[in-house]
Design a protein that fits this description.
Blueprint: E1 13-20, E2 33-40, H1 46-54, H2 56-64, E3 92-99, E4 114-118, E5 121-123, E6 127-129, E7 135-142, H3 151-162, E8 170-176, E9 180-187, H4 190-198, H5 208-218, E10 226-233, H6 244-253, E11 257-263, H7 274-288, E12 293-297, H8 303-313, E13 318-322, E14 333-340, E15 350-352, E16 356-358
Parallel strand pairs: 7-8, 7-10, 10-11, 11-12
Antiparallel strand pairs: 1-2, 3-13, 3-15, 4-5, 4-14, 6-13, 8-9, 14-16
Helix pairs in contact: 3-4, 3-8, 5-6, 6-7
């Protein structure tokens, strides 16, 4: 029983997922962005730990009796830590954006204006905030030959994005052409990132999927709970080891939001290679899997304005928290639906949030 004398550290598992829409004409307006971040913080008492060690067969029988059907959920309720061995406190935090018919950000809403459903079971909102929080951000920057005539404005867009940073934010930089590489690990020194981007030149092929993989791997070193990747590229992959299927599976499970700015020629000129034709859809698919969004640009002069808006979007979200009524750690997909009770006098509003998340497995 000596092991019972040791403290058990809390573990946190975070899944972030976000979804958002187009910004409205040049106004500094937050796009329809919805972000779902799910924080799982299992608290296990020393007593439960002792039961696992000394009475494992009994626990295994109890777990087998838990029904797999999520429709058997019970209504959400406030749960106090340590009430009994059957209590498992999981906190789910969901980032949500609300916009008006002109795609402008709607602020000033209260908790009573929101309803949360998980697998069609309404949950009790027990945490609410609209405060800005520090973010860990990775910039995935395309330096392939296809970007040669666009890289100047792309650099300017990245620099403009860095200017939206808060003092507590941290950034890393991944570039890619024939292969992906980390140009800078996490830093709060924006000037260093700027100098690295300005010194880079475009050449070679396009290992975009490898760069996304490398970015998600680097994000494991993040210090902040809120995390995002910004991809600046023309979207046409032709030199990656990882497949689209590999990356789509990875980003869906990741705790990181993905945004992209795709720089494309008009469609009638986008027919030279299969990669160029599929570029827009590739960026859209990988970002939407995380609840993020792909911005498409044909005029490179729009790039700095778009990245500035993305930076603003990251700062303006409602955070809704609840204890999921389904306590099973079954690694299954949980559907999330956010409904809005709009205040009287407002036009019809749109609410955006990730459609679901994977439950923890432990």
């Amino acid at each position: 029983m000596k092991i019972l004398c040791k403290a058990i550290k809390e573990r946190a598992r975070i899944l972030q997922i976000q979804h958002y829409d187009i910004c409205h004409d040049g106004d500094l307006v937050k796009s329809s962005l919805a972000a779902t971040r799910v924080f799982f913080v299992p608290f296990i008492s020393l007593l439960l730990f002792g039961i696992v060690i000394w009475n494992f067969p009994v626990l295994a029988i109890a777990q087998s009796a838990v029904p797999d059907d999520v429709k058997h959920d019970t209504p959400g309720q406030v749960i106090k830590q340590g009430h009994s061995l059957h209590i498992d406190v999981d906190l789910a935090l969901v980032n949500v954006t609300v916009t008006d018919p002109y795609n402008r950000l709607v602020t000033g809403l209260d908790p009573d204006n929101f309803r949360i459903f998980e697998n069609n079971v309404e949950q009790e909102i027990q945490y609410f905030s609209s405060e800005d929080v520090p973010i860990s951000i990775g910039v995935i920057f395309d330096l392939s030959g296809s970007m040669a005539n666009k890289v100047g404005k792309a650099r300017e867009a990245a620099l403009q994005f860095f200017k939206t940073a808060n003092p507590q934010d941290e950034f890393f930089l991944v570039s890619f052409n024939d292969r992906a590489e980390v140009m800078s690990t996490f830093t709060s020194n924006v000037e260093d990132l700027q100098s690295r981007i300005l010194s880079a030149s475009a050449k070679g092929r396009t290992a975009l999927l490898d760069a996304i993989y490398l970015g998600l791997n680097e994000m494991r070193n993040a210090q902040n709970a809120k995390r995002a990747l910004l991809i600046i590229s023309d979207g046409g992959d032709n030199n990656s080891r990882y497949s689209e299927k590999d990356i789509k599976r990875l980003v869906r499970e990741a705790d990181t939001q993905l945004y992209s700015v795709g720089i494309f020629d008009p469609f009638e000129y986008r027919s030279r290679t299969p990669e160029e034709l599929s570029g827009p859809s590739l960026l859209t698919e990988v970002t939407e899997l995380t609840g993020g969004r792909a911005f498409t640009v044909e005029n490179v002069n729009e790039l700095p304005d778009i990245t500035t808006k993305i930076g603003a979007e990251l700062r303006n979200q409602y955070i809704l928290g609840y204890h999921p009524s389904n306590k099973s750690h079954d690694a299954r997909w949980r559907k999330i639906k956010i409904k809005l009770r709009a205040p009287k006098g407002l036009p019809p509003l749109s609410v955006y949030a990730k459609t679901g998340y994977y439950a923890p497995s432990l």
